[in-house]
Task: inverse folding
C-alpha cells in the first residue's frame, strides 16, 4: 500500500469540522491559503484558531467570512500593510472572543502537550494585562527547593492540544516525510495536534532519510494524516525559500477588507 | 555624497550609539530603523575588532536561529541577547507598553495587532530600547489602556531585563528603574524641553545635561549608505527604496 | 576580526576547570574523544558529568582515570561490548557518586534551563527507585484547574545549567556555525551550557545560512565559544553520517579496562 | 532453504505475532531480536495492505525521528507509539524491572548500565513487551533489588501504558494488570509448566490453554531470511552474521 494517504482538496477540507480547534502557522512557516479558501467556501463555522504565534491574511479572511468564534494569538496583523481589518472590526464590535497571549506562552502550551504534561512554567508575563485576563493561567509560588528562588511567583500555562493542524510546505518525499527546513515550530504544532494535514507544492521520488542532512530538514511522516498536492498553495503568502509573498495581492486585500462591501467583493472574486 | 541627513538616518545613528557595548542584538518584526542600527553597530564594531552578532528575525540571511520561532524567546531567556527593541501603540510614564488596543479591554475602541513576545522579552533582555517614531500625547500617555508588558515589576519577580531607553522622532529618554520614571536625555534639532513637555502625556525628569542629538559623522554616514542600505533592502525593500532610493 | 574563536587543543582543554559540571553527548551525537584524552592527560579532577542521556567509552575512561567525582546519567555502557568496566568498578567500590536518572528527565532538566524556568514537570517515573533516591526532585499535586487531572501527582525536575559542554562535529562554516544534522539534543545541551566548545573535522568556506536547507542542519555560532579542528576527533567513537565506530578498538578497550592494570596500560598507550 | 529454525528466529516470530494490531512500533538500543520482529511485522502488514511504522533507534535508516534524542520520549508520551520493548537485569512478580544493579542500592554488589528511558516509556506506551532471553531464578525474581520502572501504579498516577507480555527463551507470559500478576501463556518446545515454575523466581498463574510456541511457517521464514535479515545487518551486523551468516 501507499506509504502515506494522499487526499483531494475536498477530502482535506472535510477533515475540519465546525467547532474545531485549528492550528494556524505564522506567515513565515507556510500558510495553507488555498486550503483556507476552500474551507471558507465550504462554510465551516465556529472555528477556534490557535495561532503560533500570529496570523495574517489567513486569520483575517476566516474571521471576515464568519468562520471563527474564538482566536488565541499574540498578534493578528497584515504586517507592513497595516492592521488586519476584519479582525479589528470583529473585536471592536464584540463579534469575536480573543484570548490575548504572548509568543512564548503559545509555544509553551503546545510544548506541554508535546511532552504530555498538564502544564508548563514560564517566566515574565506576570503583571501584564495579558496574564490578568487569562483565567486558564495560574500563578504559583516556586515549589522547588533545589532550583530558582523560593516562593518566586511562577506562571503556569495549561497544555493545549489542537484538533487539527494544516500547513503548506515545499515538498514531501515518497514516504510522506515533509520538508520543513528550519521552521521547527511546525514540528511543535504537529506534535501537539490530534490530526495533521499538509498541502505541498510537490511530492518527490526521494527518501529524505537516506541522508543525515536531508533527514534534518523534515517532519517525519508518522505525524502526518494526509497530504494534498496544491501548486502555489501558500499564495499570496510566501513559502520561505521557495517563493516570496505576493505583496501586491496582500495590499489589494488590505485595502478591500477595510469595508464589509470591499471584503465581500474581494472574497467573491477570490473564491470563484 | 549628499550631506543632508534624513530623519531616519538620525534615528538609526542614535540607536547605533546605544549598542556599542553589546555582543548580541536582536530585532523583531517590522523594525527597519532598529534593524539598520544593529547592522551599522555591527559594522562599526568590526572596524574596532570587536564582535557584535545581529539577529534580524524578519530576514532569512540575518536570522541566526535554527530552532524554530521559539528560539528568540529561549535565547533571550538564557541571557544571550543584550538588546531588543519594542514599540507600543501607547507607552506610559512607568514604561508600561500597550500593543493591544485603546479603550477599556476587552471592549476596546480601537484594536491593534497584539502583544507579540513583549511580555517575555521585556523581562529578560537587559537593554530594551523602546522605539516609537510618533511623539504625541496620544502615543506617550500617562497610563496605558492595556499593559502588554509592564515597565517595572515587584522585586520578587524574576526580571534581569527591562526598559533602558525610549527614542522618538523628537527626543531620547533614559528610564530610571529605581525612580520608575523617564528622564529626558537628548533633543532632536528644533525641539525644546518645553515643547517636549507639551507633546508628552506623562511627567518626566530632565537630565542636567540635556543635549542635542548629534548627526552621524561622515564616516558613519558612508558606512550606512554604502554598506548597510543594501543589506536593509534585502529584508525591508520598501523602506530602503524610500530612504535611500535603492 | 575572525567571526569565531579558533582554539588550539591546549587552549580548549584549559577551558575545563576542576570541579566543572561537564555536558557529555551520547555515542550517537559526536563524542569528543581526542579532547577527552587531552583532558585526562592534563589531570583534571572532580569533574561532574551530565550525560544526555548516556555515555560510553568517554565516561568510562574519565572515571577510570580518576577525573570524575559525580555522574548524572540514564546509562553508562559500552553497548554491544558489555558493561562499562571502570564505571561499574567505581560504583561497586563506592568511589563515585551517581545520580541515577532516566532519559526524558535528563532532557527536561536542560530544557528548563533552555527556557530559564526553575523546573519542568514530567509524567511517569513516580514510584521508581530513581525518583525515590533523587532528593533534588519533588512531587506536587497538579495545581492546574484548566488542564490535567486535579491533584494528580506530578514530578518536578530542577533546571540544570552546565558549566561547559564539548562535542565533536563534522564541520563548521566560515562563520562558526556547526553542522549537527538531526542530532538536535546537541542544541539543547548548548542552550543549557554557560560555555560551549566544539571540535570539528574541518572548517568549510561556506555559509550554512545562505540556504534554508543547510541552515536547518546547523547549531548557530552564537552559542559557540570556541572551535578546534581535530581530524578523527571522535575516534574510536562514530561520527554519525561521516565515519562509523572503530569497533575493534572499543572491544580492545572493553577487554583491557576490565582490570586496573589493563586499563592503565591501555591509557598509557592511548595517551602517548 | 534450511528448515531448521534457530532459537532467535522463533523468538522473532513470537514477538512479531504480538505486533499485528500496531500502527507504530519503536525499538530501543541493543535489541536485534525485537528490531527484526518489528521489521517482520511491518513486511507482513504491507502484504495485508496495512501500514505499520517501525522506528529503530539504533539505525540511521529506520530511525524516523528528527527532533533529537528526546523525540522518542515525547512521541511515546503523545501516545504515538503502540509497542515498545524493555529488558531487565531482574524482572519481578509485579513486573517491576531493574536495569541498575543487584544488592542494596546505592551500595550495589554488581552495577549494570542504568535505567535508560524505561521510567517514562513503561508508563506511556500501551503495550510494553518485556524481553529477556535468560530465564532463570536470577533474572526472574520475586522482588527486584532496584525499581528502574514499576510494573503497576496507583490509579491516581497518569499511566496509559504498561507491561503486556514477557518473553524469554523458554516461555511467554501475559501480565494481568488487575491481578498484578503474570500468567503463563506459551512454552517453548521441550519446556513444561513444572520446569518453568522451577526456573522462575516468582509465582505466576497458568493460563487454561497453555500452548507450545509455534514455529514460523515457511512464508514467514522466507520473509525473515530473505528480506529482514539484510535489513538487520545494517544496524546489527554482528547479530545478522551470527544468525544468518550475512
Result:
Amino acid at each position: 500500500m501507499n506509504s502515506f494517504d494522499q487526499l483531494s482538496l475536498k477530502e482535506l477540507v472535510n477533515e475540519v469540522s465546525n467547532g474545531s480547534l485549528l492550528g494556524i502557522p505564522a506567515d513565515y512557516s507556510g500558510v495553507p491559503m488555498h486550503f483556507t479558501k476552500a474551507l471558507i467556501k465550504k462554510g465551516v463555522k465556529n472555528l477556534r484558531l490557535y495561532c503560533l504565534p500570529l496570523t495574517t491574511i489567513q486569520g483575517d479572511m476566516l474571521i471576515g467570512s464568519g468562520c471563527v468564534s474564538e482566536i488565541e494569538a499574540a498578534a493578528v496583523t497584515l504586517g507592513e500593510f497595516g492592521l488586519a481589518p476584519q479582525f479589528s472590526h470583529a473585536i471592536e464590535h464584540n463579534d469575536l472572543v480573543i484570548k490575548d497571549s504572548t509568543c512564548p506562552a503559545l509555544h509553551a502550551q503546545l510544548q506541554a502537550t508535546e511532552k504530555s504534561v498538564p502544564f508548563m512554567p514560564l517566566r515574565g508575563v506576570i503583571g501584564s494585562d495579558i496574564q490578568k485576563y487569562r483565567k486558564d493561567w495560574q500563578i504559583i509560588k516556586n515549589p522547588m527547593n533545589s532550583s530558582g528562588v523560593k516562593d518566586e511567583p511562577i506562571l503556569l500555562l495549561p497544555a493545549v492540544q489542537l484538533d487539527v493542524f494544516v500547513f503548506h510546505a515545499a515538498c514531501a518525499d515518497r514516504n510522506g516525510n515533509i520538508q520543513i527546513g528550519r521552521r521547527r515550530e511546525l514540528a511543535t504544532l504537529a506534535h501537539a495536534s490530534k490530526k495533521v494535514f499538509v498541502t505541498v507544492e510537490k511530492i518527490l521520488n526521494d527518501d529524505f532519510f537516506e541522508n543525515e542532512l536531508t533527514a534534518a530538514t523534515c517532519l517525519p511522516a508518522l505525524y502526518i494524516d494526509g497530504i494534498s498536492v496544491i501548486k502555489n498553495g501558500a499564495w499570496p503568502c510566501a513559502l520561505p525559500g521557495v517563493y516570496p509573498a505576493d505583496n501586491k495581492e496582500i495590499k489589494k486585500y488590505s485595502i478591500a477588507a477595510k469595508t464589509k462591501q470591499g471584503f465581500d467583493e474581494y472574497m467573491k472574486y477570490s473564491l470563484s | 555624497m549628499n550631506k543632508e541627513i534624513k530623519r531616519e538616518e538620525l534615528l538609526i545613528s542614535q540607536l547605533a550609539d546605544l549598542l556599542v557595548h553589546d555582543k548580541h542584538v536582536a530585532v523583531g518584526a517590522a523594525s527597519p530603523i532598529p534593524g539598520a542600527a544593529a547592522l551599522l553597530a555591527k559594522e562599526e564594531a568590526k572596524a574596532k575588532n570587536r564582535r557584535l552578532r545581529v539577529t534580524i528575525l524578519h530576514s532569512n540571511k540575518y536570522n541566526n536561529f535554527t530552532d524554530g520561532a521559539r528560539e528568540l524567546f529561549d535565547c533571550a531567556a538564557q541571557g544571550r541577547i543584550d538588546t531588543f527593541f519594542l514599540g507600543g501603540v501607547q507607552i506610559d510614564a512607568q514604561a508600561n507598553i500597550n500593543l493591544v488596543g485603546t479603550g477599556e479591554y476587552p471592549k476596546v475602541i480601537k484594536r491593534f495587532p497584539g502583544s507579540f513576545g513583549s511580555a517575555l522579552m521585556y523581562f529578560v533582555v537587559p537593554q530594551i530600547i523602546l522605539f516609537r517614531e510618533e511623539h504625541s500625547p496620544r502615543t506617550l500617555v500617562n497610563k496605558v489602556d492595556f499593559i502588554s508588558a509592564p515597565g517595572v515589576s515587584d522585586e520578587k519577580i524574576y526580571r534581569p531585563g527591562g526598559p533602558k531607553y525610549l527614542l522618538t522622532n523628537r527626543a531620547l529618554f533614559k528610564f530610571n528603574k529605581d525612580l520608575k520614571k523617564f528622564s529626558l536625555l537628548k533633543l532632536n534639532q528644533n525641539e525644546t524641553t518645553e515643547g517636549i513637555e507639551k507633546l508628552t502625556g506623562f511627567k518626566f525628569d530632565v537630565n542636567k545635561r540635556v543635549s542635542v542629538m548629534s548627526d552621524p559623522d561622515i564616516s558613519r554616514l558612508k558606512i550606512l549608505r554604502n554598506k548597510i542600505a543594501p543589506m536593509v533592502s534585502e529584508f525591508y525593500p520598501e523602506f530602503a527604496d524610500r530612504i535611500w532610493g535603492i
Observations:
- Residues 187 and 212 of chain B are 5 Å apart (CA to CA).
- Chains B and D do not touch (no CB pair under 8 Å).
